[in-house]
Amino acid sequence: MKIPSLKIGPFGTAHAVGALKFWKSVRSLSTSDIAQETARPFALAVVGDETACQALTVRLSHENSAGPDGPHSQAAIGAFVRTYGSAQEVVLGSLVLQADLLTSDEAALASALAQIAVEHPDLRLALACHIPAFRPAVTAQLIGESSWDNAKMAVMTALPGILPFGDVLLPATAIGDMIILTQNQAQLLLRIAAAYGLPPDIRERTRELLPVVGSAFGWRAVARELIGLVPGGIGVVVKGSVAYAGTYTVGKAAAIYYSTGQTLSGPRLQKLYKDSLRDATARVRGLVRRPSKNTPPAPPGGDAPPKRGNKWTALLDKQKHSQV
User: Fold this and answer.
1) Is residue 85 domain-shared with residue 140, that is, in the same domain?
2) Other CB atoms closer than 10 Å to residue 87's CB: what's the count?
3) Per-residue pLDDT averaged across 235-244, rounded?
4) Helix, strand, coil % in the chain, rounded to nearest 5
């Protein structure tokens, strides 16, 4: 049995059709909620001696500690950050970073920023929008959560094909699954743009992200083909995994674009997709075996769930690049 592969490379007919459907769906979305999230007030307190506070404040104004800054990877943060010599001076309600502990430890800083974003999900988009150092952690969380949501949706809409009377129980969901998945992706891309300090304006973002989305849209056709090629429960796992990987690839490509100004090449997109597909399969299989609303998304600041070997991923790994 020949396994259909994700075609990423030259912008072909399938990509153009997928991208057109994507942006047609985008028009129905409201961006007011995203704009309100980015405007939520917050105060970040940097505590420590003067030298450490100054160093950490400068670091927070940049997305990364090393390498050239991208077009949206730095910002003026003075309106949102205050420095204090001791914790007793901090204004009540402020989010706190200990400069003495974090100034020279990038790993500890990344962990602290991710933890703040996890503990304050209502503020994380505003934090990323105004303080560039939060952007890697926040975008990773947004991508992980949206990918997992789409995987769960794909699993539910695959059920009519394998359950007795499933088409009667879930007809509306089965018909509208791709619309919902597409809208979730659109929301993800707009939220990533907002995390990089850009207004979630649909027309502006369409011009910027059309090449990104068009190059990553082959997964939709793959999901439709795969669900009919493999038996019962395996098909559910495959469809959920493909939905996760497709959403992850689109989100990650957008985050890299806003961070660096670069659009990923076809081979890099292909590798990103295949890696995330392999990593997603074990988690989706667990969802099918033990459905739970409390299954957590990918770890904050992390990109993918733990890897496990399985027959399906082994089969995918055997596919030659000539089929890709």
Assistant:
1) no
2) 11
3) 80
4) 65, 5, 30
Do residues 248 and 46 lie in contact, with contact meaning Cβ atoms separated by under 8 Å?
no
Tokens describing residue 242: 């493909």
Strand ordering across the sheet containing 44-47: 81-84, 44-47, 95-98
Q: Residue 2: what pLDDT? A: 36
Examine the pLDDT at 11 and tell me if it is beyond 60. no
Structure tokens at 227: 């669900």
Q: Which residues, 6+ apart, have CB-to-CB distance to 155 below 8 Å?
A: 236, 237, 239, 240, 284, 287, 288
- What whole-number distance in Å separates Cα of residue 179 and Cα of residue 55? 47
Q: Which are the contacts of 170, defined by CB distance < 8 A and separation ≥ 6? A: 156, 157, 159, 160
Shared-domain flag, residues 23 and 54? no
Q: Are 194 and 37 in contact (CB under 8 A)?
A: yes
pLDDT at 127: 97
Query: For 24-44, what is each residue's pLDDT tens digit?
Result: 666 667 788 999 999 999 999
Total-model pTM:
0.74
Q: What's phi and psi for 8, nearest 5 deg?
A: -125, 130
Over 80: is that where the pLDDT of 164 sits? no
HSE of 57, CA atoms in CB hemisphere, 13 A? 20
Q: What CA–CA distance (Å, rounded) separates 235 from 214?
A: 25
CA distances from residue 314 to 129, 228, 230 in whole angstroms, order as listed: 40, 19, 15
> Under a CB-based contact definition with an 8 Å cutoff, are residues 276 and 248 in contact?
yes
Average pLDDT, the chain: 74
Question: For residue 250, which of 15, 13, 10 has the smallest C-alpha distance?
Answer: 15
Domain that residue 153 falls in: 13-35+134-323
Residues 146 and 221 in one domain: yes
